[in-house]
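Sample A.
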Amino acid sequence: MSQPDYRTLIDAETWAYIERLDAAYPPDAVDLSIEDQRRVYDAMCRIFDQGRPPGIMVRDLPYGAVPCRIYEKTPTDVTVVYYHGGGFVVGGLESHDDVCAALCDRTGYRVISVDYGLAPETVFPGCFDDAYAAFTGIARVHPGPLILAGDSAGGNLAAAVSHQARQGAKGRIVGQVLIYPGLGGDWGQGSYVEHAEAPQLTLADMAFYQKVRTGGAEPPVDDPRYAPLSDSDFSGLPPSVLITAECDPLASDGEAYRDKLRAAGGQAVWFNEPGMVHGCLRARSMSSRAAVFFDRVVEGIAALGRGDWPYGKVHG
């Protein structure tokens, strides 16, 4: 399959963002040492950091022995548990600080960012164990409705925690918002083939992250903690909003996950945003399309926290 013409699919604003990002975090960053990858990634995040809106109260504290950062604006019963992206290799509380602060500001909900362990120091299932331990700790301390959210690798963790927690936390998880998540789809079809060489994330990049995540071992088979799409049971999962980028190998995972939830009688909606690339949360101040993308995220979280499903009847 020939690759798409990204010069026409992606608009000038988003190309300006890509070029600025590539200057700070080059496309071949996966060839660097892990230490250097983290150094250049953190430096790139500082370049794009938009700061915290005024009035956001921020504290660092552990939940379930996992370091976390809590953002609060006004009294609320709703807590958003957020897992950052970064291929399970890079990222942390600082890399997504402005994103979490913006989500808190725009929804009014409490947002708690989880600093799960990264590979290669923490290999699967360690990252999931951290994510789940933090979730259970948060659920004990904050008794109101819970929303699971995350981008990329964090979207994987949010979904994996949702699958694991659906019985014990039944009724507590009122929704999940998964942002260009990697959910364990088939690398031989759909966007994995069509967008294998997309800007910002390629199939080769994904193979690198997979190898580091597993410590070089073969990926586990049929383990939803690793790949939520491999679960045999999609019943009892919360209403789910999936927001993917058109120009991204992972886009098809959003569609596949939506379809599995609907087939099991659940509520799910999938937005595949035109001309967007993986990691476009950082582009929201440079690209009008990326701003719309972020609006989708905010609107999904806000609606789920209110107990609304504004996406029409989507069963079956």
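Sample B, a different protein:
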Amino acid sequence: MARAIERIEQDIAALQEAIRAIAIELKSAYASYLNTLGLAVRKQLILASYHLCTQGYPENFLHLSLNQRQQLQQAIRKLGQLAAEQLLIYLKSEESGEDEVDEGDQMDEVDEVDEEVTSSSSSLFLDTSNSHYLTANTSDPIELAKWQQKLEEAAQDILKKLSHDANLLLQKAGVLPKKLPEPILAAAAAASEASAEVMPGPPNLLNLVIEIENEQQSEDSGLTQIMAINLRLGEIEFADVTLSSERKRIRSILVQLNKLGREYKKRYKEKAIAEAEAAWRASWFDD
């Protein structure tokens, strides 16, 4: 026979309290992690851009004037700064209790850079109107897991958008080849779509060989080796000891959450069984 419903409910209440504590700890861990990630992303974007300009396409970079180089470097720094701010936007939205984030102040900063940077940087901003927010009293492990997954997806999306916008910026500046197809500028998963062979190379750079057809004379088509920025979360974490340590902390918290989640599910099933048994007894009568 199942345990008394009152005892089961007490166990569930205790689990909910533990899950609320885990929610607070997980949110705190992500706040620290995303802040560190923002700094690391800015650094890795600059390093990847440096490598691309000096070793990937040095001749193209040398063709730029001093002023053009400085404008390009400033624009790259601005992109990194915008991405770092965007990484915290989900947490800030929750703290303010708003479902939509005011992007006006951030976009004003972008206007200080030239128009090309403004147009490319604007795509970094995510639509947060349908995002999954974590309330202060979250005691449902499923809801907490959904929030965590949404946050991870947002971070990956920001890196992908940042890679694309940085490549577009470098192409407009004349560093990346003008004939570079749009799928390559999209970086990340575009390599396979472009039927390209990925080659080993520096971190956060996509180094590959791709076949580019001549629009007028297909017989002139040939294999071309290209390099583009492709920021990858795993490589960014690997290069930063602090970020790697904070990722380990998050994983440790998630292990605790999974354990509590299994126990939470078990107790709710036990409660359902106890209630069903009680309902059976309440409705049963002997002939």
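Observation for Sample B: Confidence is low (pLDDT under 50) at residues 98-114, 187-197.
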